[in-house]
Amino acid sequence: MPDHLHLLVGLRPDAALSELVRDVKANSSRFINEKRWVIGRFSWQEGFGAFSYSRSQLGTVIRYIENQQLHHGSKSFREEYTELLKKFGVEHDQRYVFKPIDE
């Protein structure tokens, strides 16, 4: 998708999610810029969203990721993300929920 990325990661209970995301963003940005895959300088937006799922839900999550183009054909990522925040009871301020890529 042009405006977001889904990662499915198994993480040890003692690992810090924020450190993993920091490393993924830093190393992927460096790689993309070294390869000059985009015009100008590539960088990720601040922040990230993460949801945990049980092992029994892995198949559903994998199918969702594989078919995300279908999901985003009828609603934007921002709309869907906001729905997930509400579904999981995550308090949030809409002003800070992912900026569209054209801003």
Question: Can you tell me the number of structural domains?
Answer: 1
Number of strands: 0
Q: Ranges with pLDDT <50 over ≥5 residues?
A: none
**Straight-line N-to-C gap:** 17 Å
Shape: globular
Question: What's the overall average pLDDT, rounded?
Answer: 87
Largest sheet: none
β-strand amount? under 5%
Number of discrete helical segments = 4
Structural features, described:
The protein has 103 residues and is mainly alpha-helical. The protein has one domain (17-96). Helix content is 45%, strand content 0%. It starts with 16 loop residues before the first helix and ends in a 16-residue tail after the last helix.
Task: Based on the model shown, name its key terms.
mainly alpha, 45% helix, single chain, 103 residues, 4 helices, 0% strand
Secondary-structure topology with pairs:
Layout: H1 17-35, H2 58-66, H3 68-74, H4 77-87
Condensed summary:
This protein is an all-alpha fold. The chain contains four helices and no strands. It has one domain (17-96).
